[in-house]
Structure formats: structure tokens, C-alpha cells
Amino acid sequence: MKIWLPFPPSTNGLFTNAGRGGRNLSPRYRAWREEAAAALLQQPQAKTKFTVPVSIHIALTAPTKAHRDASNYIKGIEDLLVQHGILEDDDERFVRSVTVEWQTPPADEPGAIVTIEEWRK
């Protein structure tokens, strides 16, 4: 299955501290989750539910030419896939492999192309 998502926020910006060890979703992460949920609704293949181990490949196109760490964009995507029932969970029982790369050449629009396949050892 292949889906498109808007460019996610970095893991470093997903949460804000709420005091006493608590954390809240950051406003930027909350807005991205809403935008990504709307994008999922427009893609019929996003109704696929994986209850078996999978591999995930993420191809990113950034909105600017700033230098970024690709691995910082995995967490928000995985959590979104779980939240919308595409993945059963994102622990080692279900997500056996994750790869992330920068698209070359970049797509016309910033975002992430996420490919999910049954995991094959």
C-alpha cells in the first residue's frame, strides 16, 4: 500500500511539556495530524488494515532546503498510522523494518510517500 501525507513535524516538535512530567501534543503536531487525517480520507487505499508484521518505507520531500535529519520524521507518521487503524501497533510485533530517505528528485509538493508492505524476512 502506498499513501501520501503532508510533510510531518520533527520528533523534536511533537510534544510540549505540561509540568510534573506530563506532555501535550504541540499545536503544530495537532494541526499536522488533522491535515494528515484529511489526506488519508481522500485515499481509498488508506482503508487497508495491517494486523501482520510490516515493513515501512518513507520517502520525504521537505518544504525548504534546510538541512534535516530524516530519522526525526518517522515517529509522527507511525503514530498516525496506528491512530487511524492502518497499523495494529508500532511496536516490534508489527513494525519489523522502517526505512526513510529523501526523494530524488523531490516531489512537486512537500510531503511523505509512505509504502507499507507485509514484512518478509
Task: Summarize the helices and strands and which ones pair or pack.
Layout lengths: L1 E4 L9 E5 L2 E4 L1 H15 L12 E8 L12 H10 L11 E8 L8 E8 L3
Parallel strand pairs: 4-5
Antiparallel strand pairs: 1-6, 2-3, 4-6
Q: What is the CA-atom radius of gyration, in angstroms?
A: 14 Å
Low-confidence stretches: none
Q: Name the CATH architecture.
A: 2-Layer Sandwich
The CATH topology is what? 60s Ribosomal Protein L30, Chain: A
State mean pLDDT (0 to 100 scale): 94
State the helix count: 2
Task: Please name the fourth-level CATH homologous superfamily.
Answer: Holliday junction resolvase RusA
State the separation between the terminal residues, measured CA to CA. 18 Å
> What's the structural domain tally?
1
Report strand order across the widest sheet.
1-6-4-5
User: What characterizes the major β-sheet?
Assistant: 4 strands, mixed
Question: Care to count the β-strands?
Answer: 6
> What is the class in the CATH system?
Alpha Beta
Which secondary-structure class do the elements indicate? Answer: alpha+beta
Proportion of residues in β-strands:
25-35%
Q: Report helical residue fraction.
A: 10-25%
Which sequence of SSEs, written as H and E, runs from N to C?
EEEHEHEE
Q: Any idea what the shape is?
A: globular
Task: Characterise the protein shown here.
- There is one protein chain.
- This protein is of the alpha+beta class and 121 residues long.
- The protein has a single domain (2-118), classed as 60s Ribosomal Protein L30, Chain: A.
- 21% of the residues lie in helices and 31% in strands.
- It has two helices and six strands.
- The protein has helices at 27-41, 74-83, and strands at 2-5, 15-19, 22-25, 54-61, 95-102, 111-118.
- A hairpin with a 2-residue loop joins strand 2 (15-19) and strand 3.
- It is globular.
